[in-house]
Each structure stands twice: as structure tokens, then as C-alpha cells.
Amino acid sequence: APALRPSRPRRGPAAPRQHQRGCPRSAPGLARLQRIGRRGGPGRSCCGAPAGDMGLEPLFQAWSYFRRRKFRECADVCSQLLERPPGEQVAGAGPRREAAAAWNLKTRALTEMVYVDEIDMDQEGIAEMILDENAIAQVARPGTSLKLPGTSQGGGPSPAVRPVTQSGRPITGFVRPSTQSGRPSTMEQAIRTPRTALTARPITSASGGYGRLGTASMLTNPDGPFINLSRLNLTKYAQKPKLAKALFEYIFHHENDVKNALDLAALATEHAQFKDWWWKVQIGKCYYRLGLYREAEKQFKSALKQQDMVDTILYLAKVYLRLDQPVTALNLFKQGLDRFPGEVTLICGIARIYEEMNNISSAAEYYKDVLKQDNTHVEAIACIGSNHFYSDQPEIALRFYRRLLQMGVYNCQLFNNLGLCCFYAQQYDMTLSSFERALFLAENEEETADVWYNLGHVAVGIGDLNLAYQCFKLTLVNNNDYAEAYNNLAVLEMRKGHTEQARALLQTASSLAPHMYEPHFNVAILSEKVGDLQRSYTAAQKSEEAFPGHVDTQQLIKQLKEHFAML
Amino acid sequence: MSLFKARDWWSTIIGEKEEFDQGCLCVADVDNSGSGQDKVIVGSYKGYLRIFNPHPVKPGDEVQPEDLLLEVQLREPVLQVEVGKFVSGTEGLHLAVLHCRKLCVYAVSGTQGNVEHGNQYQIKLMYEHNLQRTACNMTYGPFGGVKGRDLICIQSMDGMLMLFEQESYAFGRFLPGFLLPGPLAYSSRTDSFITVSSCQQVESYKYQVLAFATDADERQDTEQQKLSSGKRLAVDWVLNIGEQALDICVVSFNQGVSSVFVLGERNFFCLKDNGQIRFMKKLDYSPSCFIPYCSVQEGTINTLIANHSKMLNVYQDVTLKWATQLPCIPVSVKVANFQDLKGVIVTLSDDGHLQCSYLGTDPSLFQAPKVDSREINYEEMNAEMKELQKIIREATKTQDVLPESEKQRDVTVTAEVSPNLDEESQAIDSEVKAGAVPSVTVKVTIQSRVTAQKPSLAVCVQAPLAVTCDQFVFGDLEPDSSETVVLSVFLRENCCPSELEGTCMVSYNIPTGIPRVAQCNFSLPLKLICFPTQPSKAANHKLTIDTNKPPISFVTIFPDFVDPSEGDQANVLGFEFLTGSKTTLLASKTSQRYRIQSDQLEDLWLVTKELIHRLQVHFKKQNCKDFACTFSGSIPLQEYFELIDRHFELRLNAERFQELLSERAVQFRAIERRLLTRFKDKTPAPLQHLDTLLEGTFREVIALADAAEENQASMFQAFAKLKSATHLVITLISLWQKLSTDQVAILEATFLPLAEDTQELGWEETVDAAISYLLRTCLSKSSKEQALTLSSQLSMPKDTSRLKKNITLFCDRLAKGGRLSLGTDSVTQQAAVMPGGCATIPESDLEERTIIPGSTAMFSSNGQITKQKSKP
């Protein structure tokens, strides 16, 4: 993984809109930069000389490997050490302290190999959303909940300019786990929610994702698991704090066995007479995964009383966000900033919450604060860049993206965004070459589809409708769930006068992405033109539902109503 | 990721396949030259000790041979090198080298030569200590506040701190609760050792306390004693940081304020003397090493932190001041002063890449690699583009057009039904209660004139009939080859089929990849589902079919049912269906009539159809063209309505079951939710029989589901009967009104729109809508009726009275001479009565035009449009 916040971009600026009466196209989408969770160290490195040709102590060798994050080698040396006294695998049982030390080291090495910062993990499955008992009010007051995107208080751009996600939030500049899925309100909606080709089904339960992360570890141990959890006497280990902490992390991160981890942590915190904040945080983490948010909150709060730690604050804020109390989380972050001034993760947390609450200007402020503390922060740069792009300042956005490029971010999404910015900033010479590079760097069909989609916009912009048509077709070849492309293709078909084809395409678009207002509105226009007023009216109403502030829709509805009144 | 790269001032790669770690790098003026010029001392796990004096002529130069002052191979791996005042009686700097089981202190001295490359350096062993235990790392300093000399403290792998007062061994102490060694540092301000234990705590031990604790060497026999000795070793302070640490540094730049810096695996801490956190920073990368190097601004301390992403970050407290890229991952970083250059960053990677660098401001921008671009040949590209566009145009042109003509069928499929039933029945899993279920063999042949790729054959018959195998997949067919498969058809479910027909369908790809389909139909013999039996005289339902020819003996037309021994005068024939019901066929001896009678209306259908069919075939054979059947009795609507009601009732039941099921499911979820809260509760509360309720609801859900399934099965049977009856009614109506084939087709489309009926879209509403449409268009009496608009949504009706009324009305209108047609005359009629203000929808005209290709019709409808348009 590259340095700092490695990042994946997100879908880029989407379509320019036609402002004559009639068919708007979906906005172009800036690709979202994404973050890769911090993973364990590099794999097996080539320069691992076998231990001790100069008589290095094997345990020391393993310890040194661990410090250099050569976990594979470390685990191998430890395994050899553990095999030496036969039948003495149980740590701390015999008089051999070395065995215990090697066991501990191997446990830690195996954990580090699959370690992903728990704070970055956030997936909400259907089960979590539907069986959510923590909701306080069914209808939250505006500005206090993440569930209702609400109208933008911070003067954010309208969906006409900036594409929105399923749940109606403007798309951010950076892919984070929680930005990927909207929060459906009913079971039916959750199941019906269209998925991309990559994930055919919604995540049914969060534990699935964790399990998959964990299975990586199974491959590394052909002889079966290193520690057999079912035979473990947790009470015994809980009384040995030095072993217990490593064991807990192993069970939690490597085995993903939250229940056993929780048992161990509960015993250990009791043994520590509830004086060790670390155990409380771990119990909180377990509770969080089990969906017991209130209990997790108690543990984290109690831990914070004992010792102020950045991680604890982040965990607690995560709990509040899951409980849908963004304002509490904001306050917590701000208190945290008093204690740890200038902590980037806290400021960034605030910015993300503001962004999710649709308060774009505050979010931008905080992202700027992040850059003051850490000017290599990719997420902040990407988010500010996309903000500028969607607020019609492509030149400034271009500078932010160029900075990312100079810093060494080199991927499809970035070039995609650069290409779009160049186009809108009227630097036509760079546009096509950027897109060319983006296509060259695209790693999967989804990315290729994004690039072709944006190329289609460029083609529309220069008036080459044939090229545009083919670009959108290519988008669909690469990703046949691309609702925006269907919509735009329909607009092109409509221009050619192929009404029926346009209608079919629009229908596909609206069934793929019911949250987009464009297909509905286009259907309304189309039906109105052919005289099918009833259908036009229903479509217009759907469009208004998706985007209440759309002036053209309102006008159309008004006109239709007059028409009906006349009849 | 950064804009900048560490500018290479001097660098070299040491040794081959040697390993280095944190302790292997040290920077000091080790030869006491007094010039203030630091030397770089590097030890390796291979036992090499090297001293460098970097002085490049210009930055980035190659290494000069004289830069390497000294290289010796020691016998043991070098774990750590430190420089300090280790020899008594002198304040000069000496070099301490830590091996696994030995500590050596050397003096390094140089002799000036005449020219630069003539300088000679050597090391001289001052003293050495053999260690009882495997060493891990060491620290040094003026322990106990001694002036002018440094003492050494070595941490062993098993947790003993061994203290050496220069040439003599002072004492050893075990650390309590030790498991794995952590980093070790000495704080001179508080005179204490600071380490991070396996409990993930920063621990501080006073030197005084260590000195006065029980001597570990005397009491190390057993674990127990060691622990007890450890207990007496009291900790000064403890801070739980919740992670393992990589390194500890104690620095004090501002007078009076000293800080303990701890580099954890995920966070970076700065602690006060008393172990409180001054500040901390969460790192979003994996750090590898660090060094706090100076204080630029009052009250803040600058730190270099290198990480495993090959970056070196400069922090002022927690603010990132600079980030720079390194060529490799360093395991150790130091800051040194050379010649005229102060503050050079010295880094060492674990494979021996030693680099001295500085933070240049000229950015080393990331150069995106060139996309491999071809020489552009415009002519070729133009030609290729044209070619491609041609292909695209071709593809888009032929996309929606139907395959050319039926004559040039590439693949034909034929089905041949064997005239006799199988001798040995092939029926499997039949639910029919009758003793033996017969089956009939169908031979399907596929003939191909071209290459057909991946052909697959599907044979389908309407349930309750079934085939032994309904899917066949073949290998690619060569041109002019054929495939034959044999299968059997039999009655599977215990009800009577409404039609005795089946379909074969072959799907295949032609070599260009376009998928194609070929199909054929086949009809099955009546014998498959019934057998001759004794005729019965009495029956509930009777139909009489009139013909215009004298009656034919059943021996002639039903040879397969009549026993020839009965003679040719057989005019009564009995059929018994496999399901058990009976139908009797009577031929009048005198008049030209046939009578069909049965207890069930639906059972009449198949026999009636067979009779008419066989009569037609028979007369065709005799070249008698004016044969016709008629029906003059009244249509048995009342009996038909009973069947409709029965079917509708079952649909209502199904709906009720569905509602109940969803109610119970909601209840189930609600109970689940309550139980969940109960279980989540910290204090266990009684369940208050919620579990019983849950189980009860679960049972109810299952029972309801079972009932719904049963209902579905009987609904399927009812629908089959309804279909049979409908076929019968259609036939009777067409015989009664002597309808043409086109009209019969309309009638069939009206009454049998669905292959299957479902809860959402059922037979009743569809037929109702179709009949209402016909009543309003071609069968309408007045223009007033036509103006009514149709409701766009089909939904299940509340009862069937409207449908019955419509069917009755439909028959009435037909009787009064209504003509069934969808022709343009009705459209013109309709258009004429449209109110003038409302223009016709052009789109629907388009549709009409495509449906009816008649040229006269086209003309009239076109004329209509122009007229319409000129109106407003």
C-alpha cells in the first residue's frame, strides 16, 4: 500500500445538463477516491536469510522480524521454536518462558498480518438496519439525523448539479465504507434496492463481511488454525494480562470470533478490577460488532474517563453515528479536539459528518483544517476538489487533483477526474489524453464504464453525437447497470426521434436508479410530447419526489394541471 | 505520498545479504577528532562493523573508497552499537558493541596520513563482558547522576536488566511481569529506565529502586521466586497505552522540560516526566522508526517519523511540517552533522541501504509513465475507422429486423407421435390413481442445413401432462446433419388436461453468434388419457351437434376405441378418463346428429373436439367439401358460470391466506424483536412466555403456508377445468354462429389470454377487460358506449357478477348479429365519435397501421388523420 492515506477515487462528475426544455442528462460523476484499509505488512520478502547462521538467538531473530513487519518470517521462526519442545504448545504452562514468548510473538504476528483498523470498518447490513431498536424518534428533527438527508443548510449544490446517492445525499469525493450504502427505510426497499454487478445482493448482515476478511488467514495455515479456540481455557488466560491482550487481538482480528473475544475480555477486565481502559475499549468493540450500541457506548465512556485516547473517541463517535446522533458525535469530536488539538482523524471525522448531513460548506471548512495539519491528506484534497468541481469551479478542482497526481496518486479515477476538470475548464488539449490514461489504468470494468460515460459527456459537449452514442453504448457494455448512461442514451435516441426506444431506455434507467430524477422527468417530457398526459403526469410526480426543487418539473406539472382543468 | 523526495547527499549499499535492525546504526564523533564531525557507525547481524565518514565532493556523488574508515568482522552478530563515555578515567568517546552474549567496548583512533587516502583507523578493545543471558538491547547514561561517565544497562531476552559500571558488573534485576523485551531508554532527569512491557504499558523504574531491590542473580532458581523478587521491584509510574511500542526516546531540548517520546505501532505519544500524556497522534500508516531531533519553536519538538510506505514525515508536535519520499524502508534514522553540513538525515534500511540525505525544496514531481503510444498513421486509422463504422452501421441496421424468410429455415424440427401407446408405460411419478398410466412416444428430429452451435431442445406439454425428459443439449451440429431424440408423454397429475398438444423448441446460435429459434407443435392421441368403457345412459350435461351429412359409424371414425367385434352398427361409445369420470358419445341412427353427454361439463370438451376433428378428417378423405357442423342448442352458460365461481372462490381463498400469512409474519417479527431486547438486556428479565408465543406463531405460519399450498393445488385443477370448459364454450359459440377462423382466433384471444393465472393477474379480470373492450368496440350498440374509457389497471374484481353479465351480453350481441373484428372499420367508427377538441394520439395510429397491413384500411385511416389534423 502506498504511503499515507492510500486512496481510491470515486465516480466522477457526471453529465452536463441540457437546459432547454426537455431532457436533462444525468450529471457527470467525479470518481470517488477510496481508502484502502491499513493492512498487515508486505508478504514474504526475498531477503529473509534463515535464522542464525551467525548464531543469532532464534527468539531474538523472530522479535527483530516482527519489529520490521516481516510477519511471515516471524511466524515461521516462532513455529520452529514452538515445535522444539514437543507437546508443550500451551503457553505459560511449563517452566519455559521462551515458549510463552514465542507463542505470544506468533499470535501477534498472525494478527498483524490481517489487521485492519476497526475504526475504518463500517458495513451496515439489512439485518442491522431493519432490526434497529436504537432509533429514538421515527421522524427526526431536521439537522439531527443522518437518515434524512434533508435540504442542504450549508448551501450545498442541488442534485441537478451534483449526483446523489440512493439515499439522497450528494456524492462525496472519497469512498468510505459507510458512503457506499444508503440506509433504506423498509425491508422491502432494502431488498428491492438495485445493486451493481459487483454486489448482486445487499449485505444481509455485517458479520458476513468480517468473516470474509478473516478467511485470508485460513490460507496461511495449511495445518489448520494456530490456536484451537474451542479448547482454550479463557479463564486461565484472562489472569495473564500479558498473554491475554495478544490473544484477544488474535481472536478478534484473526479469527473474527467476537463471542469468544467478548468472553475473554469480560473475564480479563474483571481480573484487572475494571481499572484497565484498554479492556473496556475492547469490550466496547465487541459490543459494537454485536450491535449492542448502548452497551458499547457505556464501555467507551467509562474508558474515556480513565484515559483520554484518540481511538476511544473515534470508537465512541462511531457508536453515535450508528445510533444516528450526529450532533452528539460532533460535540464529542469537538471535545476531543480540546484534549488533542490538531488531531487529524478527529477533524476529518467532523468534516465527514457535516458532509453526510449535507452541510457542504462546513465540511469544506473542516477539510481545509485537516490540510492545515496534514497537507498530504488525500481524502481532504479529494473532497475539496470535488466540492469545487460541483460548485462550478473546475479550474480550482483541477489544481487539487493535479496536486494528488504530483503526490504520486496514480490511478484511473484520478485521471478520470482530471480529464473532466480539464474539459470543463476548457483545457481541451489535456482532456482526451487524460481519459486515455484513465482507460489505460482502469483495473476493472466498472472503472472503464465510468471513463466511457464521462467521455460520452465530452462528446456531447463538442457536439459529436455519434461519438457520444457510441461512448454510452460502451459504458453499458462494460457495466450494464449504469443508469445514467441509459438515461443519456435515451436522450440521444429521443433526438433521433426513436420514441419507443427512448422510452424503453428510460424505463430501464428509472428501474435501476429510482433515486435519480432525470429518467422520470424525461419520461414525463416524452409522454407529454406524444400526448399521453396521464403517464406524463405520473412520471412528473415521481420526478418531483426525487428532486422537489426542480423548476422544470414544477412547470410541467403546472402545465399538465391546467390542461386537465381545461378538459 | 508527497511532492518531495529526500535529496540524496551520499549513499551506499553495505554488504551482501546482511541484515540490519534498529540498533545497528549510530552517529557520533567516535574517534574524538574534536572537529565536531560525526561518523556513521554501522554494525550488522553478520558481525561486520563499519565506520563511514561521508564527504562527497558534490551531492549525490558516488562513494569514495576513503569514505569507509574502517571495516572489521567481529565473530558474533552485532545487535547494537552505541557511543559514550564508557571507559573510566577519560571523558573520551568510546564505542560499545553489543553481541548476543558479549558486550565489548572499543576505542577508535585514527592516524593521519600524508594524503587523505593514507589515513589509518583502528579499533582497540578496551574491555569486554561475557553475558550469562542472551542480550536484546541496551541503553546508557549517567545512572545515579554520576558526572562525566556513562554506565550501560543491557536488557536480556528473558527480562533481566544487567547494569555495568564501566569495567565492572554492578547488578542484575528481573523486570516484573516480563514476557517479551520492549524498547528501553534512560531518562537522566528522573534517573529512571523507561520501557514498554508486554502488557502494553509504558513503565518507568527508578535506578535507585533497581539498585536496592533484591539481587536477581541469587534468587532466580524458580519462576515463583523470580516473581516474588519482581514484586519488590516497585514501578515508579505506569501508563497504559494499549499497544506495543517500537521505540522510546527521552529528550529535553528546552531547559527543564524533558519529554518521553514513545512510538507505538499505531500511535505516537509524547509523555511528561510523570507519565502523563502531553500529546498523542494517531498515525494512519505503519511507522518503522523515529527520532525527535530538535526544537525549532519554543515549546514544541520536531520529530522525524519514517514509515513502511517509504515516507519520512517531519512533525512539529502533531502538525505535519514536511513529508518526503525515501528510496527504501528505514529501520533506523539519525540526524548527524558533517563537514559544513548540519542536520543530515541518516537512514539505514534492513538490507543495508545507508543514505545521508537532506530535505530539498525543489520538488521531485511524480512522472506518470508514458502511455505506450503508436506512431499515428492517419490513412490507416481512417481506413480502420471507416471499416468499424461500417460494421456498426450494419449491426444497428439488422438488429431489430426479423430473420429473412421462413423458407430458408436453417434448422427444422419435426415431432412424430407414434400411433400406438407404448407397450410398456414410461410414466414416472404419476399421481393418477388409475392402475396403469399409459404413455406415448414422441420422436423429435432436428435437421440442420448449416452449422448450428450449441443447439438445445426444449419439449413442453401443458400440465397435468408431462414428458419423461424436457431438455436436451447437443453438441454443435454440422451442416446437413440431424439429431433424433425419443421421449414419452404421460398424464402426471390427477386431473384432466384441457388440450392434448405439445411444443418442441430448438434454440441455437448461427456461426456469427446470433441466436435463433425453431419450433413445431404436435398433438397427442386421446387414448393417452382415456379408455373405452361401458356407455352410460343418464348424464347431467348433454350437447347435440348437428351435421349436414348422414351419421357415420363409430367403427369408422373411432377405430381405436370401438371393439370391431361389436359390428359396424355401434352408435354408442363410452369414454372413461384416467381421472375416473365418464363421457358417452351417441350417434343418432336417423337424424344427422351426435350427442355427447357427461356428468361434468369440462369432460365434454376433449370428446367433442375429437369428434369434430375426426368427422372433418373423415369427410375430407371422401372429398366432401361442404361438410359442416352446427350447434343449435343454447350455450351452457349457467354450468360454465359455476366453474368460474368455483375458480374465483379459490382465488379469494388464496388472497385471504396471503393476508393472514403476512399478518402472522409481522407478528412473528414483532415477537422476535421483543425477544431480542429481552436477551440484550443486561439484567435477565423473565421472558413472560414470549418464547411460547414465538413458537405458536411459527406453527401458525407453517400451517397457513401448508393450507395456502393446498389451495394452490386445487386452484390449479380448477383452472384446468375452467380452461376445458372455456374451450368447449368457444367451440360451441363458433359452431352456433358459424364463425370464421379469424373470428375464432379473436374469441380464443379473448377467453384464453393466459397460459397460467396468478394472484396478481388472474383469468377473471383479464377476460372481463377483453370482453368489455369487444363490447365497446365491434359489438357496441351505440356511440355512447364507446366513449367510456377503460381503466388502465387490471385488478382482481370483488365478485364475478360483472363478468357473468358481460359474457351473457356478449352472447346476446353475437346472437343479434354482432361481428367480431378488430378491423379498421371500428377504428374509423371510433374516431368519428371522438369529441372534436381532443386530437387522436398519433402513436396509436402508428400501432394500428403496423397491426393491420391491409392497404385499403391504411388509406382510410390516413385520411382520417389528415382530416383530424386540419380540424383545429
TrEMBL record, chain A:
GO terms for cellular component: BBSome; ciliary basal body; non-motile cilium. The keyword Cell membrane does not apply. The keyword Disulfide bond does not apply. Residues 1-27, 148-190 are annotated as: Disordered. Keywords: TPR repeat. TPR repeats lie at residues 483-516. One of its GO terms (biological process) is non-motile cilium assembly. Residues 1-17 have a biased composition (Low complexity). Residues 177-188 have a biased composition (Polar residues). InterPro entries: BBS8, TPR-like_helical_dom_sf, TPR_rpt. This is TTC8 protein. It comes from Chaetorhynchus papuensis (pygmy drongo). The gene is Ttc8.
Automatic annotation (TrEMBL), chain B:
This is PTHB1 protein. The keyword Amino-acid biosynthesis does not apply. The keyword Coiled coil applies. Residues 1-363 form the PTHB1 N-terminal domain. Residues 525-632 form the PTHB1 platform domain. Pfam families: PHTB1_N, PTHB1_CtH, PTHB1_GAE, PTHB1_hp, PTHB1_pf. Keywords: Coiled coil. Residues 739-814 form the PTHB1 C-terminal helix bundle domain. The lineage of its organism: Eukaryota, Metazoa, Chordata, Craniata, Vertebrata. Residues 634-737 form the PTHB1 hairpin domain. Signal peptide: none annotated.
